[in-house]
Amino acid sequence: MKNSSLVRIQALLLRYLYVLRSSWPRIIEISYWPTMQLIIWGFVSLHFGSSQPEISTSGILISVVLVWDSLFRSHVSYTLSFLEEMWSRNLGNLFVAPLRPWELMISLASISLIRTLIGMIPAALLAIPFFGVSVFDMGFPLLAFFFNLVFTGWAISQFVTGILIRYGLGAESLTWVLPFMIAPVSCIYYPLSTLPLWLQEVASVIPTSYVFEGMRALLLDGQWRADLLWSALSLNLIYFLLGMVSFLLSFSSARKHGLLLQSGE
């Protein structure tokens, strides 16, 4: 049973890799947006750094932009792979395999991580000669920040794919909308204290706010706040489990109403 599941996961992951390998425009698009974000925010950092040297010397703006984009890339990569199955009306074929929902989740998460790394590593490397900023100098904390945000992206994707499988392609715009709903309270470019008190309460249940507070503490104060990362991880686990439940309930409802075969509608 376990071997059969592993074979199905590997087969689906190979399918996504073959699609990616055979389409150079896809690979260019994956790397294009993180690189463009880096260039724009890098020059913004240089501009403001003339009056506030701590911004440019610490590379805080460039670092948070790169790390934030890992959330958006992981989410979009996961959801777009699922959308491609819907666009090609292939969901019904997949689950005839038979493919279990959790096997599809693992496959989508795997290709999401691969696509995210393809997009983020070149941008992070270009930041070194362009702006003299290396996010790799953060060492182990960088991995903690990165995987927490990737985890958040997957949690959002679970909710989005659940809505898509239940309500169809009319809801596909949520792929791009939902990540930015949490951006104002994620405290990406400003500290938590900037928010009004009632929004600080909202931010306290958003895992990304802990990640970026932790990044600021490390980059500006040289302080490693493991407590913030553990808080982020705990919230991510809760939201990821809720997202899984949401997807499984939506999948069950879609199968009951015969929506898997009409997923392209």
Question: How would you describe this structure to a colleague?
Answer:
By secondary structure, the chain is mainly α. The protein is built from eleven helices and no strands. Helix 4 (60-87) runs antiparallel to helix 6. The two termini are 34 Å apart. The model has no long low-confidence stretch (mean pLDDT 84).
Blueprint of the fold:
Elements: H1 2-21, H2 24-49, H3 53-58, H4 60-87, H5 91-95, H6 101-131, H7 140-167, H8 174-181, H9 197-203, H10 207-221, H11 226-256
Helix pairs in contact: 1-6, 2-4, 2-6, 4-6, 4-7, 7-8, 7-10, 7-11, 10-11
Q: Residue ranges: pLDDT <50 for 5 or more in a row?
A: none
Characterize the biggest β-sheet. Answer: none
Shape: globular
Helix/strand-derived category reads mainly alpha
What is the rounded distance between the termini?
A: 34 Å
What is the succession of H and E elements?
HHHHHHHHHHH
Helical content band: over 70%
When the domains are counted, the total is 1
Average pLDDT works out at 84
By DSSP, the count of extended strands is 0
Rg result: 19 Å
- Strand fraction equals under 5%
Structure keywords:
265 residues, mainly alpha
Write a brief caption for the model.
77% of the residues lie in helices and 0% in strands. It has 11 helices and no strands.
